[in-house]
Amino acid sequence: MSAPHRPTVLDHPLALETLAALRDRTTPGPAFRARLRALGMLLLAEACRDLPVATRWIETPLAGMQARVIARPLPCLVSVLRAGDGLLAGMLDLLPDAPVGQIGLWRDHASLRPVEYLVKLPRDIAERRAILADPMLATAGTAIVAITRLKEAGAREVRMLAALAAPEGVAALAAAHPDVRVFVGAVDERLDEHAYIVPGLGDAGDRLFGTT
Ligand code: PRP
Ligand code: URA
């Protein structure tokens, strides 16, 4: 297991292929959406690798059996709006029964500080692993606020999923929330003067929703 302050970086060839398509400026909106959804699945799989398992009696068409399943309660999945919804779609493909929370934050272009407009979380979040999804971990201002809101609501174990991170964001998040494990597609070179990740993939929300 990697140290808590160091992100787990996906090294699966399918993740590499998916990330390359997301980065490519010629990838059209529908394909971008499909790729982000796929990456949500891959990231969630990695973040759930160590979940406890239990057994549940099921009947197949041929026989009864004790099937191995994730021990309840299931994790709670939390999307940072808007772009987190792109990863969330794939996460829900794998865990359709998981409760979902939403945290609405957008980054002010001048101050680069997150502006909050929604916090809606499952009541029993304290009993569940909370898995937060936002494709971009740039300065980490957004992630730090989102995780603070999760902890205020009672979350005791938080994991963060991102497609791409900047080294600056990784360091800032580790300083603010050292207990939170981070899972990413890649850690890129740097932030530019507008706090965009370089080489990155551009504006995740705009590419996902076609708002450029
Ligand atoms: C993007 C991204 C993160 C945030 C990352 O959202 O999805 O939430 O910026 O930046 P930070 O790490 O420097 O805080 P954006 O503000 O563009 O909002 P949107 O998803 O609503 O477009
Ligand atoms: N938000 C994005 O969508 N992209 C970045 O590179 C940084 C913040």
Q: Which SSEs are present, and which pair or pack?
A:
Blueprint: E1 8-9, H1 13-23, H2 29-47, E2 53-59, E3 64-70, E4 76-81, H3 84-94, E5 100-107, E6 114-120, E7 129-133, E8 136-137, H4 141-152, E9 157-165, H5 167-176, E10 181-187, E11 190-191, E12 197-198, H6 204-209
Parallel strand pairs: 1-10, 4-5, 4-7, 7-9, 8-9, 9-10
Antiparallel strand pairs: 2-3, 5-6, 11-12
The chain binds 1-O-pyrophosphono-5-O-phosphono-alpha-D-ribofuranose and uracil.
Short summary of the structure?
The chain has helices at residues 13-23, 29-47, 84-94, 141-152, 167-176, 204-209, and strands at residues 8-9, 53-59, 64-70, 76-81, 100-107, 114-120, 129-133, 136-137, 157-165, 181-187, 190-191, 197-198.
Description:
The chain has one domain: Rossmann fold (3-Layer(aba) Sandwich), CATH 3.40.50.2020. The protein is built from 6 helices and 12 strands. The protein has helices at 13-23, 29-47, 84-94, 141-152, 167-176, 204-209; strands at 8-9, 53-59, 64-70, 76-81, 100-107, 114-120, 129-133, 136-137, 157-165, 181-187, 190-191, 197-198. Strands 1, 4, 5, 6, 7, 8, 9 and 10 form an 8-stranded mixed sheet that branches. Strands 2-3 form a two-stranded antiparallel ribbon. A two-stranded antiparallel ribbon has the order 11-12. α2 packs across α3. It starts with 7 loop residues before the first strand and ends with a helix. It binds 1-O-pyrophosphono-5-O-phosphono-alpha-D-ribofuranose and uracil. Uracil (URA) binds at residues 136, 138, 196-197, 200, 203-205. The site of uracil has 8 residues, from α6.
